Amino acid sequence: FFCIQVFDFTVGCLTAIGFVSYMPNIRTFMEQTPTLPYRDELMKMDPQYLLLICMALFFLVMIVKAYFIGVVWGCYKYITSRNLMEVIYYPDTEALLPPTPPSYDPVTKMPPPPPYSADAEA
After folding, report:
1. What is the pLDDT along the chain (122 residues), one digit of tens a residue?
2. How many angstroms separate the CA atoms of 36 and 42, rounded?
3. For the chain, what is the radius of gyration of the CA atoms?
4. CA-based nearest residue to 2, from 84, 86, 79
5. How far apart are CA 19 and CA 15, in angstroms?
6. What is the dihedral of CA 102, 103, 106, 110, to 10 degrees?
7. In sequence order, which residues have a C-beta less than 8 Å from that of residue 5 and are 6 or more positions away?
8. Sign of the CA dihedral with 16 first, then 19, 24, and 25 last
């Protein structure tokens, strides 16, 4: 679907370039298409102003197409990144618990600590 959108965008750009370079007079195009809506009103307009309106409309359509290409690309990146995260990380619950104190009997059988002295030797 993304490739089709990019192809459509490219063809649209080439069509606009061809339209501007091979048919700069838009009135000849309108005379050849009798089923054009609002044809009479458009024929009364200045040709350069009419060409400006047509090109502005074309650029608006191309901006919308480029936006939707970006939307599809963003969705594709989201889906592929989601497929890469197949391994779910579960933290070790025992490491999160506070340590338990040792039982009383083994501690009483340990030797006492060395005596502390108040004199500090350098």
Report:
1. 778 888 788 888 888 777 777 666 677 777 777 787 877 787 788 877 877 887 888 889 889 988 888 888 888 888 887 766 655 555 666 666 777 777 878 878 888 878 877 665 54
2. 9
3. 38
4. 79
5. 6
6. 50
7. 65, 68, 69, 72
8. negative
How far apart CA 66 and CA 83 sit, in angstroms, is 26
Supply 91's token pair: 């933290």
What are the tokens at 106?
């083994």
d(CA 108, CA 96): 28
Q: Are 51 and 24 contacting, i.e. CB atoms less than 8 angstroms apart?
A: yes
For residue 86, what pLDDT is reported? Answer: 59
CA pair distance 79, 55, nearest whole angstrom:
36
Tokens of 24: 């700069």
Q: How far apart are CA 120 and CA 32, in angstroms?
A: 108
CA 34, 39, 43, 49 dihedral sign is negative
* Residue 102 dihedral angles phi and psi, to the nearest 5°: -70, 160
